[in-house]
Amino acid sequence: QDKPKIGMPMTTLNDAFWVDYVNFAKSAAEAYGYELVVTDAQSREDKQLSDIETLVNAGVKGMILTPLSEPLGIQAIELLDRAGVPVVVTDTFPGVEVGYKPNYLAFIKLDDETAGYNVAKHLIEKDGVKNLVGIGGVPGISTSEARNDGMKKAAAEHSEVTVLDVQYTDWTLAKGQSVMEDFLTRFDNIDGVWGAGSDPLLGAIVSIENAGRSGIKLAGIDITEAAIDSLEEDKLSMLAGGHWVMGGYGVTIIHDYLNGHETDQPVYEMSLYYLTKDGIDDYRSAIIDPLAEGKSLVDWKAISKTSDSSVNHADVFQVIAP
Amino acid sequence: MLVETHTDTGSKDHLDTPRQPYLLAAEGLNKNYGPIQAVKGLDVYLRAGEALALCGENGAGKSTIFKILAGEVVPDGGRITVSGSEYKPANASQAVTAGVSMVHQEFNILPHISVAENIFIGRMDEFSRFGRINWKALYSAASRLLESLGIKCNPRAEMRSLSPSTQKMVELARALSTDPKVLLLDEITASLDHDDADTLHRLMNALRAKGVGIIYVSHRLQEIFLSCTSIEIMKDGSWVATRPASELDEDQLSALMVGRDLADWKRPARPPLQEEMLDVSGLTASGFRDVSLQVRKGEIVTLAGLAGSGTDEILDAIFDAGHLTAGTIRLEGSDYAGKSVSDAIAAGIAMVPKERAVEGLIDTQSIRFNIGLANLSSNTRGVFVDGAREAEQAEQGADMFRIKARSTAELVRSLSGGNKQKVLLAKWFLTNPRLMLLNNPTRGVDIGVKFEIYDLMLKLSQEKKLAILMASEDMAEVIRLSDRVITIRHGEISGVFEGPEITETNLINAML
Amino acid sequence: MSQNTTASTLLRNGFSMEAMRVYFPFLVLVIVCIGFSIFSDQFLSARNLETVLRQTAVLSIAAMGATFVILMASIDLSVGAVVGLSAVIIAYFMQSLGIAAVPTGLVVGAVLGAVIGGIHAKLKVPSFIGTLGFMVAGHGLMLHITGGRPIMIRDETMRGIGSGTIAGVPSIVLIAMAAFIIAYVIQHHTVLGRSIVAVGGGEVVAQRSGIKVDRIKIITFMLAGIYSGLAGIVLASRMGAGSPTAGTGLELDVIAAVVIGGTPLTGGMGGVVGTAIGALIIAILSNGLNLAGVSSYSQMIIKGMVLIAAVIISIDRKKIGIIK
Amino acid sequence: MSQNTTASTLLRNGFSMEAMRVYFPFLVLVIVCIGFSIFSDQFLSARNLETVLRQTAVLSIAAMGATFVILMASIDLSVGAVVGLSAVIIAYFMQSLGIAAVPTGLVVGAVLGAVIGGIHAKLKVPSFIGTLGFMVAGHGLMLHITGGRPIMIRDETMRGIGSGTIAGVPSIVLIAMAAFIIAYVIQHHTVLGRSIVAVGGGEVVAQRSGIKVDRIKIITFMLAGIYSGLAGIVLASRMGAGSPTAGTGLELDVIAAVVIGGTPLTGGMGGVVGTAIGALIIAILSNGLNLAGVSSYSQMIIKGMVLIAAVIISIDRKKIGIIK
Ligand SMILES: Nc1ncnc2c1ncn2[C@@H]1O[C@H](COP(=O)(O)OP(=O)(O)OP(=O)(O)O)[C@@H](O)[C@H]1O
Ligand SMILES: Nc1ncnc2c1ncn2[C@@H]1O[C@H](COP(=O)(O)OP(=O)(O)OP(=O)(O)O)[C@@H](O)[C@H]1O
Ligand SMILES: [Mg+2]
Ligand SMILES: [Mg+2]
C-alpha cells in the first residue's frame, strides 16, 4: 500500500483553477504509481514554507512547487537541495533559474504578463474597447501583479485606450461584484472589463446586469465551467486558460528523473488556450465531458521517458486543446 | 399547609416553642471546599414570623449556608424542608419558586437597564404576551411595589443613576417582589444609609407580622437586637448555640461568637498631640467644596456624613489628588503637590477604599499578590520583585490580621467576605504609611477581629505617630475611635466635635 | 463630553438617553458622507445611494444577529463562515430543489448557531475560541461541499431577489429593513431581548434573578445563526452563486459595524439601531474610497485609520467605564 | 476537577499551583502528539521534531508578547501586521544597510506598539478596534513599502540565522527560547509583570494601588510590539525576504495559542509558560495533519474542532469564573 510520495505544496485550493490543477496532477501520479500529498498554504508564505518542510519529513521523493513568491521559491529550492529532494516549479517564477541547485529540474510556466496582455489585446482589438477597467487578484502576488502589468502594457500600446482604474478582488466573486458596482457608479463610459481571474469577472457580470448596463465587453483569464456558461450566454467575450496542466507534467518530469531520465529543457512555457464562443462545443466534448466522466485526458505512460525513452518532453507538454 | 413534621429533638437547646411548625428546617448541612470544611453538620430552624440572626466569625460559614439555602451552592450533605416539604433547589429560580429569596452582600444590579427591569427581569413572562413585553404593566407593577415598600425612585430610571443605597433597596424590592416565605439578608445594611436602614427594619417588622421568616447576617451587633427575635451562633462551620434575642445582650453575644468577653473594650486615654501631619485647606472637587481640616500625628479624625454627603469623595480626593479643582494639601508642614495615587503612596499616604471588590482586591490572584501590590515600590531590587520579602510581608500581614486561609498563596476569591476585608487592611497597613485614609475599614469584619483592628489602629497612631483620617457608616465605631469628628453635610463641613462632644445625637443632628 | 452632560440633564429618563447615544455613530456617518461628497460628485447620486444600500444588505443583516451576541458580551467570529455555508448549501440544494432550497439557509444558520451556543454555554468554551473553531471548520466544510468551485445559481426567482426591485427599492434592501425591524422589536420589546441585555450586563446577577442564562446564550447564538443564514440567502441571491470563499473576512466587518454603532464588546448596552448605522459606515467607506479613486493600498491605510477615528467619536466612554 | 484539588493540597505555595495549571495544556499537547505518532511514523523522528520547533519559532515569539496584552485583558489583532511590517522594513533597509538593518525590526515594533497602546490608553479606543484598525492599515502600509512585491534579502548572515544551527539547535529556536526566558522573568519576577497582571485582574484596583495604568498599558503594547518586531526578524530570516503578505492571519494563531495555553481573554491569570505549549500545539497540528496526509479541506475541519477540544481540556474554569 505504501506508494512513494510526491509532494505538492499548494498556495490555495479555494479556486476552480487550482482544483483542476491538482486533479490533473493526481491522475498523473496515479498512472505512475505515486501518492500525491497535497497541502494548502491558504496564501500564507510562512505556512507554505512550513508545509514544504513537513513534506520533506514525510519522505517525499519529489516535489511540484508553485511558490507564493520569488524569495519563497529560493528558500524552498535551497531547503529541498539540502534534503536531496528534486523539484519542479510551476506557474510562479521562483527567483532563480533552473540549475541554480542540481535538484531544481525544470520550470513549467505560463507567461502571466503575456496572458494579461493577450486578454487585453482581445478586448481592445477584437471588441473595440476604449475605456477599460481592471479587476485584479490579490495585491502583492506575482501572478496577479504580472497579469496587471500585461494588461497595462497592451493598453499603453494603444493611445486611444484608457485604463480607468484597477482594483483587487482577492480572486473572489463577491469582491468582483462590489468593485464593479463602484466602477459603474464612477464611470459612465466603461466599455470593457479585464479580469485577472474568472471568478471576480462572474461577480462583475452580476453587477452589470443589476445596473441594467449593456455594451460592456468582458474577458479574462482561467477557463472554468461557470465562466464557460457565461461565455455561451454572451456575457463574456473571451477566456484564456488551460494551464492547469502544469502540475501533471511536473509529475512526469519527477517520475522520469527518479528513473534516471533527465528532462529535455529547463523551461517549458505553456501557451494559453484562448476560448471564444464558437469553440465552446469542441472544448466541452474534448475536455470538460471526459474530465467529468473521470477519463484521463492524457496517456501518461505515452509521454513518459521511463516507458518510452524516445519521448521529448518539449513536444508533449502542451495545453490540452480540443 | 402541610402538617408539622419536625419537632425539637431536645438534643440542642433550640427555641422551645414546639406548637408552631417550622417554616424552614435545615438539618445536618455539610459543605466542603476541597480540604476546607466550610459547614459541618449545621442545623437551622426558622419559624414563620421569626427573624433569626446568624452570627459567627469571618469564615464561620454564614454566607455558605445562605448560598445553600438560596440554591446557589449544592450541599455535600444534609436535608432541608420548607413548610414541611423536601427542598432541594438546583438553582436560584427554583429556590425563589419554593419561596426562598436572598439579598446578597455584594451588589447584584444591572446598571444599564431600568429599575423596573432590575426588579422583574427573571419573571418578565408575567408582563408579556407571546414574548412581547407590556411596558405599561411592568412599570406600574414596579411603581406599586416600590411605593408599598417605601422606596423612593422612578421605575423607569436607569439603575446606575441611583445611589448605592437605593440600588440595594431595589435589590430588596426584587427579593420581596417574589412574595418569599423565607427571606435571607446577607450583611445588607453594610450598603444602606441611615434612612434606608430604618426603612429596612420597618419592613422586616411588617414582613414578620405577615408570617415571613427572615434570616439575617450582620457584623453590627446592635442591629441584631433591633430587629431579630432569635440568634443562632456558629463557629468554624458548626453550631454553637441558639437563643432568643431577649436573653442576650451585645457583650454576651460577642462572647459566644469569639469566645472572649469584649464588654470591657474601652479606648485607652490618649495624650493630646500637637505635631501636624495633614493640613487641608479650601479643598474643592466634584461632590464637596471648601473643605479645610487638620489631622495631627497620632490622631484619629473621622468624617461623618449621610450617604452621598461627600465623605467618600473627600478621602478619594486626597489620595488621588489629580481631580481637585481648588485647595491645597500640606503634609508635615510642606506642600504636597501629588497628582496621582502613586505620588500619594510615595508620600506615605495609604488608603483602604470602600468597595473592596471594585477598588480593593484582585480576586483572581493570591493573598500574597494582593498584599504585595501596594508594596511593589518597596519590595524591589531594580526592576525585579524581591519575592522572598514579598512572601515574608504577606505572612506578616496574615498573622497581624488573623486572615483565615490555608496559606498566603490562596486565591482571594476563595476567602469569606470578612477575610477579604482583612487582606485589604493588611495590604495597606504594611505600606507603613504616615497618613492612613480609611473608608469603612471594618466593613464585614467580625466583632472579635474588629476590636483587634481598633487596638492596632490605636497602637500605630500612638507608637508610630500614624495619622488616621477615617470615614465610617458604623456610628458605634465612629464614637469608639475618634479623637475628633468632622461632620459633612451636602459636601460642606457642618460641625466639628471633640472628646465628650462626640455623641450619637450631636453627630446625627449635624449630619442631617 | 460636556455636550453630552448638558443633553442628559435636559432629558429625564433612561430611554431618551439611550436615544441620544445613537447620535454619536450618526455623527460619524454624516462626517464620512460629507467627506466623500467633496471628493466624488457621484457619491450622493441616487444611483450610488441605491448601490450603497445594496452593498450594505448582507453586512447589516449579519451584523444585526451579531449585535445580540455582543450585547450578551460574547463574540462571534463564525459569522462569515455561517453566512458562507448558508449560501453554499442553498446553491447546492437549489440544483435539485429550485427555489424551495431557500429555507435551508435559515435551517443551517439555526442549527450551527445552536451548536455553537451549546458548546459555549454548556461546555464553557469561551465564545472567541468556540466561534474561531467554527470559522476555520466552516470554511473547510464549504470547500468540501463546493469542491473548491463556485456553485452557480440558475434559478431565475432567486437571481431576481438579488437584482430586482419592489416599488423602486431593491428587494434585498427591503429584506434587510425587515430584518432590522424584527431585531429592533426583539431587542426592545421582548423578554428575550431584555434577557440578552441582562446577561451582558452581568451574568451572575442575571442568573440570580432567575434568568436561565445557559438557555439565553444558546437561543442568542441560534438567533444570530438565523440572521447569518438570512444574510447567506441574500448573499447567494446577490452573487448568483454559492462560492467557496463566500463570507470570508465578513466577521471583522460585522464586529466593526457593531462597535462603531455603539455596542461595546463588554456588552450590556447599545443595540441594533447603532449597528445599522455602523454597517452603513463600513459599506460607505469602501464605496466612497473606490469612487474617489483611491488606490487600493492607500484604501487599506485610510480604512484602518477611519475605523479608529469612528470609534473615538462614536463610543460613549462615560457609560462603558473601563475600556479593554 | 477533583484531581486538581487533591494535587493542590499536596502543594504548598502559589507557584506550584501555578505550575499545576500548566499541566492541562500540556495534557493536550501529549494527547495530540500520541495521536499523530499513531498516524505517522515520521512524526516523532528527531528531524521532524526539529522541524516543528523551527515552525513554532515565529508564532511562539509573537505569542509571548501577545500573552502580556491578553494578561492585561486587552487584545491585539495587529500582531500579524506588526510582524509583517517588521519583516518588510528590515528587508527594505537591508538593501542599503546590510545586517545593520536588523534592529530596525525591533524599533518598528516598539514604535507601533507604543502608538497602538497610546491610542488605547489615552484616547480610550477599545483594543479590539484599535488593533483591528492597525491590522488593516498595517497591511496597506506593507503593500506600499514593497510595491506589492517581496523584497529579497541577500545578506548571507541574515539568511544564515534563518537556516543555521548553533550546537545542533536551529538558531531561530535558540532565539525563541531566549525570548521565552525573558518573558518568563518579566512576568514572574518584575514589577512590570506584576503590574500587567494587576491591570488585567482589576483595572481600578491597580490604579488604586498606585499603578500608573495608562503607562502600563502603553508599555505592555510596546513590549508586545518589540516581541512582534523580533518575530518579524525571525520571519524575515527564515523566509529570506520581506513579503507584502508576511504575517497575514498570524494574529488568530497567536490568540489561539495564548488561550489554549490557559490565559483567558478576561486576563489577570495565566502566562507565558502555557503560551509556549499552546504555540507548540498549534504548530504541531499543522505539521501532524500534513504528515498524516489528511486532505487540506478536512484539515481545516479537524483543526477547528481540535481547537475547541483543546480549550475544553485546557482551561481552568474554576479559576476563570465567568466565561464569555
Ligand atoms: N468557593 C470556595 N472555595 C474555597 N473555600 C471556600 C469557598 N467558599 C467558601 N470557602 C471557605 O469556606 C469558609 C466559610 O466561608 P463563608 O463565606 O461562608 O464565611 P462567612 O461566615 O460568610 O464569613 P464572613 O463573615 O467573613 O462573610 C471560609 O473558610 C472560606 O474560605
Ligand atoms: N466564582 C466563585 N468561585 C469560587 N468561590 C466563590 C466564587 N464566588 C464566591 N465564592 C465563594 O463564596 C464565598 C462568599 O464570597 P463573597 O465575599 O462574595 O460573599 P460573602 O462571604 O457573603 O461576603 P460578605 O461576608 O462580605 O457578605 C467566598 O467564600 C467565596 O470563596
Ligand atoms: Mg460571608
Ligand atoms: Mg458575608
Automatic annotation (TrEMBL), chain B:
<dbReference type="InterPro" id="IPR017871">
    <property type="entry name" value="ABC_transporter-like_CS"/>
</dbReference>
<dbReference type="GO" id="GO:0005524">
    <property type="term" value="F:ATP binding"/>
</dbReference>
<keyword id="KW-0677">Repeat</keyword>
<keyword id="KW-1278">Translocase</keyword>
<feature type="domain" description="ABC transporter">
    <location>
        <begin position="24"/>
        <end position="261"/>
    </location>
</feature>
<protein>
    <submittedName>
        <fullName>Sugar ABC transporter ATP-binding protein</fullName>
    </submittedName>
</protein>
<dbReference type="InterPro" id="IPR027417">
    <property type="entry name" value="P-loop_NTPase"/>
</dbReference>
<keyword id="KW-0547">Nucleotide-binding</keyword>
<dbReference type="InterPro" id="IPR003439">
    <property type="entry name" value="ABC_transporter-like_ATP-bd"/>
</dbReference>
<keyword id="KW-0813">Transport</keyword>
<dbReference type="InterPro" id="IPR050107">
    <property type="entry name" value="ABC_carbohydrate_import_ATPase"/>
</dbReference>
<dbReference type="Pfam" id="PF00005">
    <property type="entry name" value="ABC_tran"/>
</dbReference>
<keyword id="KW-0472">Membrane</keyword>
<keyword id="KW-0067">ATP-binding</keyword>
<keyword id="KW-0762">Sugar transport</keyword>
<dbReference type="InterPro" id="IPR003593">
    <property type="entry name" value="AAA+_ATPase"/>
</dbReference>
<comment type="similarity">
    <text>Belongs to the ABC transporter superfamily.</text>
</comment>
<keyword id="KW-1003">Cell membrane</keyword>
<feature type="domain" description="ABC transporter">
    <location>
        <begin position="273"/>
        <end position="512"/>
    </location>
</feature>
Automatic annotation (TrEMBL), chains C, D:
<feature type="transmembrane region" description="Helical">
    <location>
        <begin position="127"/>
        <end position="145"/>
    </location>
</feature>
<keyword id="KW-1133">Transmembrane helix</keyword>
<keyword id="KW-1003">Cell membrane</keyword>
<feature type="transmembrane region" description="Helical">
    <location>
        <begin position="77"/>
        <end position="94"/>
    </location>
</feature>
<dbReference type="InterPro" id="IPR001851">
    <property type="entry name" value="ABC_transp_permease"/>
</dbReference>
<protein>
    <submittedName>
        <fullName>ABC transporter permease</fullName>
    </submittedName>
</protein>
<feature type="transmembrane region" description="Helical">
    <location>
        <begin position="101"/>
        <end position="121"/>
    </location>
</feature>
<feature type="transmembrane region" description="Helical">
    <location>
        <begin position="218"/>
        <end position="240"/>
    </location>
</feature>
<keyword id="KW-0812">Transmembrane</keyword>
<feature type="transmembrane region" description="Helical">
    <location>
        <begin position="166"/>
        <end position="186"/>
    </location>
</feature>
<feature type="transmembrane region" description="Helical">
    <location>
        <begin position="252"/>
        <end position="285"/>
    </location>
</feature>
<feature type="transmembrane region" description="Helical">
    <location>
        <begin position="20"/>
        <end position="40"/>
    </location>
</feature>
<feature type="transmembrane region" description="Helical">
    <location>
        <begin position="297"/>
        <end position="315"/>
    </location>
</feature>
<keyword id="KW-0472">Membrane</keyword>
<dbReference type="Pfam" id="PF02653">
    <property type="entry name" value="BPD_transp_2"/>
</dbReference>
